[in-house]
Design goal:
This protein is α+β, with helices and mostly antiparallel strands. The chain is 46% helix and 13% strand. It has helices at residues 4-17, 22-29, 33-42, 83-92, 100-107, 115-118, 140-155, 164-176, 182-191, 198-207, and strands at residues 20-21, 46-47, 55-57, 69-72, 75-78, 98-99, 124-129, 132-137.
Amino acid sequence: MIDEENERQTRAVFRRSRIMTVTQLAQHLDRSIPTVRNRLNSWRALTSYNCNGRYYTLPNVAKFDEHGLWKYKGVCFSRWGTLMNTIPQLVKHSASGLDASEIGRLVGLPPRSFMAQLRNVHGLRREKVEKRFVYFADEDHTYRSQRTRRAEQSKTMPTNLPSDTEAIFILVDRIKHPEFSEQQCAQRLRSKGKSIGVVAIHNLLAYHGIEKKTPDTSSFGR
């Protein structure tokens, strides 16, 4: 049994730290991992959906944004728990559905890390729109509204956008190297055998509203 005073002090440390692993909590409580996991359940602690679910936070610590997400020191949490519970909610509440790159930008993860799992997630409908797969809510009324809005957006979409596969490579590179220019991104991808032009990279980032952290003075081209 956990001493009440020890538990009170541990929760205070937990709140100050904001996030902790089960091992760290076990050291503070001086109890076994299974006992600590049971205590986390009673505290209704949230598990990170990245970092292999290693981190926990308390419900009153997480500061969720308008999408129900909270990120702290690179660790991501959702009010819906797991990533596969979260993505259908993000799609459902989006105006025009979401493609993989848009989902990745919201959750802060490279799309290739979760795309394969989306095929079996309940609550989603996948369709190809302008060379890329878009996920819509499967509820008929919401789907029709999102599909109409997506069609309207497609009319104003830049003509030179990369394919889904190319977009994933670009966004993964942007996540890893946010400080580098679009020209440097193109060069880095070319060294990996991916010939994607600067114009396509620029259009993709502009389309998703992703700003560079440093000015890009290079000219467009391949």
